[in-house]
Write a structure and sequence with these properties.
- The chain is α/β, with parallel strands linked by helices.
- Strand 1 (46-50), helix 3 (56-63) and strand 2 form a beta-alpha-beta unit.
- The termini are far apart.
- It contains 6 helices and 7 strands, in the order ααβαβαββαβαββ.
- The protein has one domain (5-195): Vaccinia Virus protein VP39 (Rossmann fold), CATH 3.40.50.
- It has helices at 5-15, 28-36, 56-63, 75-85, 121-130, 158-165; strands at residues 46-50, 67-72, 90-93, 104-110, 132-143, 169-176, 188-195.
- A 7-stranded mixed sheet has the order 3-2-1-4-5-7-6, sandwiched between helices.
- Helices cover 29% and strands 25% of the residues.
- The model has no long low-confidence stretch (mean pLDDT 96).
- The structure holds S-adenosylmethionine.
């Protein structure tokens, strides 16, 4: 059951370096930073990476001057993040749907939304809204194409993502990603959305 930490923890245990792990941050961190700065992202603000895995993206945002929380409910993910990047990021083992940490100024979501069973998507949007301050930004990297896999990850068309997010957010940017990792080129899009009051 993908809703349970054990499902993911077992993959970390068996595979060591799971197929989704890029051994570094997605290049799209920088693309999203450039997109989000004019849309109100505040350098120096606090940012959370839900489903942070081994923490590469969280550490990259920290190196760009943000105060970062890396959250994952799989203990081995958090242990792996700590051993790779130490205490420069606030690592936390917890469930995105129920964590009492936050609120934050921004969310960077890379392969967490798409890891969810699609029935949980509306609740996930609510969780993002609840964990952000008013006006906070949700930056997402999402698959529109998973090469026919049954998932996770689960693909979502851009138009469907817009409708879902608009329940709680104003969608400020929604477009094909340009600088994806070569293994994901042509299959990802990016979203920047602002939480409404
Ligand atoms: C596909 S992996 C991606 C990991 C990381 N973002 C990366 O790109 O390497 C999805 C991650 O989300 C975590 N996850 C899934 N559901 C979660 C939840 N409800 N709360 C916190 N973490 C969750 C899993 O443990 C797993 O580490």
């Amino acid at each position: 059951m993908t809703t349970q930490p054990d499902y993911w923890n077992q993959i970390y245990q068996v595979e060591g370096r799971p197929g989704w792990d890029m051994d570094g941050a997605t290049p799209l961190v920088h693309e999203l930073l450039d997109l989000a700065l004019p849309l109100g992202l505040r350098p120096g603000g606090d940012l959370v990476v839900p489903g942070c895995g081994y923490g590469h993206d969280a550490a990259e945002w920290e190196s760009l001057g943000f105060s970062v929380t890396g959250l994952d409910f799989a203990p081995l993910a958090i242990q792996g993040a700590m051993s790779r990047y130490g205490s420069r990021v606030a690592w936390s083992q917890g469930d995105w749907f129920t964590t009492m940490l936050g609120p934050w100024d921004a969310i960077f979501d890379h392969t967490c939304f798409v890891a969810m069973d699609p029935v949980r998507r509306p609740a996930y949007v609510d969780a993002c809204a609840e964990h952000l301050r008013t006006g906070g930004l949700w930056m997402g990297v999402l698959f529109h194409d998973v090469k026919g896999q049954s998932g996770p990850p689960h693909a979502i068309p851009m138009a469907e993502m817009r409708i879902l997010a608009e329940a709680r957010f104003d969608v400020l940017h929604l477009a094909e990603a340009k600088g994806s990792h070569p293994r994901r080129a042509g299959r990802e899009f990016q979203m920047v959305a602002r939480k409404r009051t």
